[in-house]
Amino acid sequence: MWKFTVRLKSVKDVQDFVGLSTTMGFPIEVEDDRHRVNGDSFMEMFCLDCASPLTVSAECSEEQFAAFRKAAERFSV
Question: Is the pTM of this model over 0.85?
Answer without folding.
Answer: yes
